[in-house]
Structures are given as structure tokens and as C-alpha cells.
Amino acid sequence: MDAAARHGRRRRLNARGSPDMTQTIAFIGLGNMGGGMAANLAKNGYAVRAFDLSEDALARAEEHGAMRAASAAEAVTGADAVVTMLPAGKHVESVYTDAVFGAAKPGALFLDCSTIDVATARRVIEAATARGFGMVDAPVSGGIAAANGGTLTFMVGGADAAFAQARPILSAMGKAVIHAGGAGNGQAAKICNNMLLGATMVATCESFAMARKLGLDPQTFYDISSVSSGQSWSMTSYCPVPGVGPQTPADNGYQGGFAVGLMLKDLKLAIEAAASVGASVPMGNAAEALYQLLANRGEAGRDFSCMIEMLEGK
Ligand code: NAD
């Protein structure tokens, strides 16, 4: 007997697509992040109807208490809310335009948790609103472990009423849910935060590399800088030097953690957004160029703190 059956949740959709739980959520995009998030919704008592283009992802979702749907439209039909966790803006826009808008019942709420460009997020929310649906952009901070553990932070953009409706659903998947303002502001918060993270990690790495060349022991530099004005999250929570500070991906050969490729994606979104509003982001530009170099070296899959190896000439 699989986990879904044990939990009494293995149900095929009936003709009207209405299982008997109080709230039914369609979940589209069950990859590295979405898989764990959908499992947490099911664990919290929501009836989850899952759709993904990948058969493996669907099978895993079913094992974690979701019901599989044969298409995005079938998942959405009759659902009270729709959560999407997709790779990029073009996937989000096509899923909503081609399937969700046409199949959703009146009054359904839409939550896009993917990291996408601000312009697409605002366009899709505007289209949803014009059709009478509430919608929020709700990108996350936290990686796969936080998605599995239900400890994500959600930065949410959208109208007050849509945020109020979205909050309990997001709380079932995370530890913090913060309203960042109107449509697209969740994405804006996410890319500004990650641009800051990308730049401070580069600065932390180059400082450690230079300290070593000047004859300072990395642990000694950490002991000083972590209680001085150079302190940052990149140093004290995610130190890029193996054996220094708390346990981080650096202690595991830069495996796991937050991949260079994902940091690069977020920096490209940040640069694009900066250009759209004429914001000057010299540090963001420099960070993007450096993570691009790392990716070109074949390191897109390693943790982003491996930047220190490149700066040390390794
Ligand atoms: P992923 O590639 O593992 O998952 C995306 C899933 O979407 C895949 O299973 C894919 O088959 C599915 N998909 C694509 N197009 C589809 C469609 N038209 N219909 C149905 N399913 C479709 O990606 P992920 O790591 O889970 O990331 C998802 C989002 O979360 C991205 O926007 C990413 O930037 C963001 N994010 C990721 C992390 C992380 O650590 N992985 C952290 C924060 C935010």
C-alpha cells in the first residue's frame, strides 16, 4: 500500500472533479520545489490535485498524498485555489492563459510561487483580475530542504483581499508570509534580496581570498569580521570557507545549497527589472558577470559560495 492510500487520500477525480475535503487545491509544477510544497498542503488537510509534464514528478506527488490529474485544466476544474511552481515567466503565462483561466471556477484564487520577471507577474495578475479572479505572486526564499520541511518564506504581491485568502494556504507550506504590496511586489522583493545576496557573497569570497594572500588565517579573519562592520549573512550563516563558521555547503564540496545556475537566473531577472525602471545596479551587474563566468566553467550545478574557488584561482 502506498503512502497516499495509507492516508486515505488516493482518489481519482470524479466527473465534477470534487473530492470531499473542505478546500481543493490544484498544484501545477511538482519539481524540486513544488513536490515538497504540494506534499505539505496534503499533510495539512488540503485535497491536492497535481499536474506536471513529468510522469516521475506526478508519481512522487501521488505518493505524498496528491491526486493526479491528466492535464492542467483537469487539475484546475472545480478547485478552490491554484498554486503554480514553474521554471520561468513563459511557463507561468502559458499555463494561466491556456489552461487555468478557462477551467477555473468563479471565485477561485491563484497563487504563483515561481520566481519570474516582474513584468510577466504583473501582466498575468492583471489578466486574472480582469476575469474576476484573485491572484498573488508569492515567490519563495529557501531551497529544496525548506520546501520539503514547510519552512519557506513567501514574499507576496497582490491586493489585500487576495493576500488574506492566500495567507493560510501559504502558511501550510512556510514559516513566514509577508505582504510586500501590490501585484508583482513579491517578485520585486525576491530579486532585490537575491541581488543583495549575490553581491555580498562575492564580496565575502574576495575578502577571504585576499585575507589569506595577506597572511591572515581564515578562521581569525572570520572571528574578527563576523563581529565587525564587514559582517553579513553570507559570512556568518553561509561562510564560503570550508571548516569556518557553521556547517555550510562549503563543508560538503559545495554540493547542495543554492545552485550557481539559480543565482544567475535571479541576477538576470534583477538586471532586466533594473533596466525597466532605470535603476543603477553596478554591484548587481558585476555579480551577474562573475556568476556567468562560474557557470561557463561548468559549475552551474554547484553551490553559489564556490565563487571563492574561482577568486582564489583554483
Ligand atoms: P524544477 O525544474 O525542478 O520544477 C519545475 C517543474 O515544472 C518541472 O517538474 C516541470 O516538469 C514542470 N513544468 C514545466 N512546464 C510545465 C507545464 N507547462 N505544465 C506543468 N508542469 C510544467 O524547478 P524548481 O527547482 O522546483 O523551481 C521552481 C521555481 O522555484 C523556479 O521558478 C525557481 O527559480 C524557483 N526557486 C527554486 C529554488 C530551488 O532551490 N530550487 C529556490 C527558490 C525558488
TrEMBL record:
This is 3-hydroxyisobutyrate dehydrogenase. Belongs to the HIBADH-related family. Residues 24-181 form the 6-phosphogluconate dehydrogenase NADP-binding domain. One of its GO terms (molecular function) is 3-hydroxyisobutyrate dehydrogenase activity. Pathway: Amino-acid degradation; L-valine degradation. It catalyses: 3-hydroxy-2-methylpropanoate + NAD(+) = 2-methyl-3-oxopropanoate + NADH + H(+). It comes from Sphingobium cyanobacteriorum. Keywords: Branched-chain amino acid catabolism, NAD, Oxidoreductase. The keyword Signal does not apply. Its EC number is 1.1.1.31. Residues 184-311 form the 3-hydroxyisobutyrate dehydrogenase-like NAD-binding domain. The keyword Nucleus does not apply. Pfam families: NAD_binding_11, NAD_binding_2.
